[in-house]
TrEMBL record:
The gene is xseA. Keywords: Cytoplasm, Exonuclease, Hydrolase, Nuclease. This is Exodeoxyribonuclease 7 large subunit. InterPro entries: Exonuc_VII_L (IPR003753), Exonuc_VII_lsu_C (IPR020579), OB-fold_nuc-bd_dom (IPR025824). One of its GO terms (biological process) is DNA catabolic process. One of its GO terms (cellular component) is exodeoxyribonuclease VII complex. It comes from Natronincola peptidivorans. It is found in: Cytoplasm. HAMAP family: Exonuc_7_L. NCBIfam families: xseA. The keyword Acyltransferase does not apply.
């Protein structure tokens, strides 16, 4: 007897009927912690419900989401009511949620918020501590899993955008207990290379548990202490990890991180060509302006006839010299006139000038000037000073004259 083979669709439909017909699975309450929450543009909500050991995919349609008073967050502890069914296209069984009640925050979410607040208080997230990404890095390090899609995406994007950039891959574990120490060692190793200019650190998307290595304190401090700029490339667009806050730049996917790390080669070439054209245009304008200035200088009167300026100055100097000599001579003449006037006045006051008019001065033997006949006696020896010498004489006669005028207006002698 030949057994009939079932198609994949038939298998999935059969399993779906089994799940729906199960009395327990068709109306079930489940409690757990929400992770990997996504709000679709359609209004549906997709998330994972998990506990310490397992997880289950969940969907809550828009009609049921509209009944919620608050939108849950990753890390929220909830109790949901719904049924288990199969999504036939992907063969994925999931929990279809009709109702949801909050029952607090999950342990991982509490730990995440606590560490975030601690590091933020210490200043690890401050923008002034962020390092600048070089415009065209020559060497880029990639810290990620060597087997994941993230490494392929990063390499592909970098080589497409800027083929001349050298890439160095530092393979690490990106989830599990060994992930955080592995990432820390890779960051420290990268910083021993002086020529590496940028580090891309990340992985593809996942649940909060799968991404937890990027929420570890040791990883955050290793990123902060890195002398090389770090781009966080954890492929989880809606949620931030601690690494995203500490990193110098956060990219929502590994591909986006590669785009941030290097520019497009064609864009760089186009920019350089634009700058070159602007430089040539600016230089041509500058040369044209300088030529105009040069022509103006060449046509300038003083440039054409440079000696004329000297001749004009010499002529002016001659005029100044002529005026100076004239002024000096006039000054000398004026001063001579003043000087002669003063000399004449002095001569008029000079007692010796009377000699030139025939007068003489008589003195006694003691040198006293004899002004009156009363000062001498007969036989006194006197000296008489004249214009050209001195005479010594003896008094032999004294004649006293009356200097007063008589009644007839004549002097009288005795």
């Amino acid at each position: 007897m030949k057994i009939k083979a079932l198609s994949v669709s038939e298998i999935n439909k059969y399993i779906k009927r089994l799940l729906i017909s199960d009395p327990i699975l068709s109306n079930i309450y489940v409690k757990g912690e929400i992770s990997n929450l996504k709000l679709h543009s359609s209004g549906h909500m997709y998330f994972t419900l998990k506990d310490e050991d397992s997880k289950i995919a969940c969907i809550m349609f828009k009609a049921n989401c509209d009944k919620l008073t608050t939108i849950p967050q990753n890390g929220s502890k909830v109790m949901v009511k719904g049924y288990i069914s199969l999504y036939e296209r992907d063969g994925l069984y999931q929990l279809y949620v009709n109702e949801m009640e909050s029952s607090g925050l999950g342990d991982l979410y509490i730990a995440y918020e606590k560490l975030k607040a601690k590091l933020e208080k210490e200043g690890l997230f401050k923008s002034e501590n962020k390092k600048t990404i070089p415009f065209i890095p020559d060497k880029v390090a990639i810290i990620t899993s060597p087997t994941g899609a993230a490494i392929r995406d990063i390499i592909s994007v970098v080589k497409r955008r800027f083929p001349k950039t050298s890439l160095y891959v530092f393979p690490v574990a990106v989830q599990g207990q060994l992930a955080a120490p592995s990432i820390v060692r890779a960051l420290e190793l990268c910083n021993t290379f002086n020529d590496i200019e940028v580090i891309i650190l990340g992985r593809g998307g996942g649940s909060i548990e799968e991404l937890w290595a990027f929420n570890e304190e040791a990883v955050a401090r290793a990123i902060y202490n890195s002398d090389i700029p770090v781009i966080s490339a954890v492929g989880h667009e809606t949620d931030y990890t601690i690494a995203d806050f500490v990193a110098d730049i956060r990219a929502h996917t590994p591909s986006a991180a590669a785009e941030l790390a290097v520019p497009k080669f064609v864009d760089v070439v186009e920019t350089l060509e634009t700058i070159n054209r602007r430089l040539i245009y600016t230089m041509n304008i500058k040369i044209h302006e300088e030529k105009k200035k040069l022509d103006a200088i060449k046509n300038n009167y003083h440039f054409k006839y440079p000696l004329n300026y000297i001749y004009d100055e010499k002529q002016q100097i001659d005029e100044l010299n002529k005026n100076l000599v004239k002024t000096i001579r006039q000054k000398i003449h004026d001063h001579k006139v003043v000087l002669n006037n003063k000399i004449e006045r002095l001569n008029s006051l000079n007692p010796l000038s009377v000699f030139s008019r025939g007068y003489a001065i008589a003195r006694d033997t003691e040198g006293n000037t004899i002004k009156s006949i009363e000062q001498v006696k007969m036989n006194d020896v006197i000296s008489i000073s004249m214009l050209d010498g001195e005479v010594t004489a003896r008094v032999e006669n004294l004649i006293k004259e009356d200097k007063s005028f008589g009644k007839n207006g004549l002097r009288e002698s005795y």
